[in-house]
Amino acid sequence: MRCALFALLWARRDQVCSKDEIAAAVWPEYQEEIYDYQIESLVKRLRAKLEPNPAEPALLLSAAGRGYRLAGGR
Question: Strands 67-70 and 17-18: what pairing?
Answer without folding.
Answer: antiparallel
